[in-house]
Amino acid sequence: MSAPPGEFAAVLAGLDLPGLAATGPRADDAAVTAVLATARAGGRLGLADLAVLLSPAATGRIEELAHAARETTLRRFGRAVRLFAPLYVSNACLSSCTYCGFSKGLPVVRRTLSVDETEAEARLLAERGFRHLLLVSGEHRVEVSADYLVAVVERLAPLFPAISIETQTWSDDTYTRLVAAGLVGAVHYQETYDRARYSEVHVAGWKRDFDRRLSSFERAGAAGVRRLGLGVLLGLAVDWRADVLALAAHATFLSRRFWRTEVTAALPRIRPNAAGFPPVVVVGDAEFVQAHAALRLYEPDLDLSLSTREPVAMRDGLARIAVTTMSAGSSTEPGGYGTPGTAQEQFSISDERPPDAVAAMLVAAGYDPVWKDAFPLVAT
Ligand code: SF4
């Protein structure tokens, strides 16, 4: 089931990511000052500038970086922060990814919700105020088939104006069917853009095919999916800066290739789960904030999403700097909203506040929680 690589595969092959990432350690204070001045003046930054903003020299200027990012976020997005909820429909998976709690072969309790059970979970989330759902599943061609997912989207579309998926890569035809059923967004984390490292951690199953995974975004965009979600898993590859640079290049490529489509990105850090996978590098809090602020300055219109993996203080802080979409009150197990404890979670969450508490935090900070998921969010 191999797929032709998308156009971005050639762009990625042409990028000198190690060279760009190596620019960072050589960057000095003067270089950081120059890039910040360009960003503040509204100038367009290149990948070399982003490498400077990701550098250790810029980590020492994190407050300036955060301030500049906050100004850019306010200018481009106003005070709106979108809230969404993940709805795990299945933790069955035929792929083996060494970092994931759903990996095939792990002795975890598996569950796939029926369409009726999915609707029951969704109605609980609707009662909590959500109008944007992210349907999440492992990769299982039988339990989570194209027909099943289309049926779920069709059932939930009257309840939710914005439905996204975070699932396997689908055929062009299936993306078209999903859009017709009411799908708005597709999230396909590449996890790492380092082919060698990708191959080490994706040991079996469909997800092992790097190019097939990379083609997901273009397949979905060509089928009319209006929001494309990118992500790298921080802690998976040693050179996290190279991964952020590649993600930035991918975001720019997609926003030009599908100019009517919103591009959204996330930088999750590895959390404890049943796989017991140790991160190969720990991205500290200052560097985590730096990565978000740098991406905001590099690509001002990029929607940055943050999950409940992160602790309360980090989430509350980043909502004031660069993040424009947040999950809230999340469960990462199938059936976890109505019947918790009946299946294995994908990873443990840190921010356990209910959604209304997250919304109250945003209001207290002067922001507008957006439940209905206005599209697009970017001010034009
Ligand atoms: S990352 Fe996705 S494909 Fe890989 S084991 Fe987890 S659920 Fe399955």
UniProtKB/TrEMBL annotation:
Keywords of this entry: 4Fe-4S, Iron, Iron-sulfur, Metal-binding, S-adenosyl-L-methionine
InterPro entries: Aldolase_TIM, BATS_dom, rSAM, rSAM_sf, ThiH, ThiH/NoCL/HydG-like
GO molecular function: 4 iron, 4 sulfur cluster binding; catalytic activity; iron ion binding
Keyword Coiled coil: no
PROSITE patterns: RADICAL_SAM
Cofactor(s) it depends on: [4Fe-4S] cluster
GO biological process, any: thiamine biosynthetic process
Matching SMART domains: BATS (SM00876)
The keyword Membrane appears for this protein: no
Residues annotated as signal peptide: none
One matching Pfam family: BATS
Radical SAM core domain boundaries: 79-322
Descriptive protein name: Thiamine biosynthesis protein ThiH
Organism: Pseudofrankia asymbiotica
Lineage: Bacteria, Bacillati, Actinomycetota, Actinomycetes, Frankiales
